[in-house]
Amino acid sequence: MKIKTVIFICGLGGDAGMTYVPSLREFCESKGYVFYAPHMPSFEEGITYAKYEKSFESLIKSENITNFENVLLIGQSAGTNFVVKYLAEKPMKIGGYISCAGFRFPPDRVSLDKFSALKSFYPTNKQYEIFKNLPFKKYSIFGGKDCFFTTENLSKYADDIGSEKIFDENGLHGTISEDVKVHKLLHKIIEEKF
Length: 194
Description:
By secondary structure, this protein is α/β, with parallel strands linked by helices. The protein has six helices and six strands.
């Protein structure tokens, strides 16, 4: 079934990743998709899985999104952990999923303290397995120059969710080094795969 709606779930920091969301919105709308990037809580607001869940479900309710087979979810960084856990707990058949810098716990290039806000986000091995078996296309974009996670960690996440790996040698954390305001590889995957 054709994708009609794209929902972007950002990482930590409220609207982290918003630097390239305007170009993503413009790209998606030019292709005829309805695009949403719901506000997610910032560090100041207190980041928890429950707050992310509330923001996501509020969007679904307010926009009356009911046909999830037409929805492409895109998770960025911590947003990827949210998507896996949420769909493992509340399985639904969506149109597809793209992960940008999806990672496994524990982080391997930064202190655990920096990611302590994510403790409630981390999926269990059972949740990874449930997500992996959900019947929709999955893609993981990750780069060789990620500032937070090793390529091995990012690749393990892709394996654990059963996604096709899309490796960018120069990719940074959730962005593309060519131009951090335009995630060109993400646009290409949406256009070619959905």
